[in-house]
């Protein structure tokens, strides 16, 4: 699907922009894969998510956060990429 390809192709650029924008906040952004619900005895140990990155903020009371990148693909952009609706 063109919109999924568009997101995958631009994800690194968008993530890089986020890191630059947030660099004065002492955040650490790193790769992640499956993030499971809190460890047992979690009431939902079977739940998880696949975030695009993990963010560590040493100044926060909850220092670990997930980063999910969305880079919209509109019908105008589709015409620029040669796709049809």
Describe this structure in words.
The chain has 85 residues and is α+β, with helices and mostly antiparallel strands. It has one domain. 32% of the residues lie in helices and 20% in strands. It is built from two helices and five strands. The protein has helices spanning 2-22, 75-80, and strands spanning 28-30, 34-36, 48-50, 53-56, 64-67. The strands form two sheets. A three-stranded antiparallel β-sheet has the order 1-4-5, with no helix packed on it. A hairpin with a 7-residue loop joins strand 4 (53-56) and strand 5 (64-67). The longest helix has 21 residues, at 2-22. The mean pLDDT is 79.
Short description:
The chain is α+β, with helices and mostly antiparallel strands.
Strand adjacency order, main sheet: 1-4-5
Task: Give a quick account of the main beta sheet: strands, pairing sense, barrel closure.
Answer: 3 strands, antiparallel
Strand content: 15-25%
| Total domain count | 1
Structural class: alpha+beta
Tertiary shape? flat
Write down the Rg: 17 Å
Mean pLDDT: 79
User: Number of helical runs?
Assistant: 2
- What is the share of helical residues? 25-40%
Low-pLDDT segments: none
Counted beta strands? 5
Order of helices and strands: HEEEEEH
Distance between the termini: 11 Å
Layout of helices and strands:
Elements: H1 2-22, E1 28-30, E2 34-36, E3 48-50, E4 53-56, E5 64-67, H2 75-80
Antiparallel strand pairs: 1-4, 2-3, 4-5
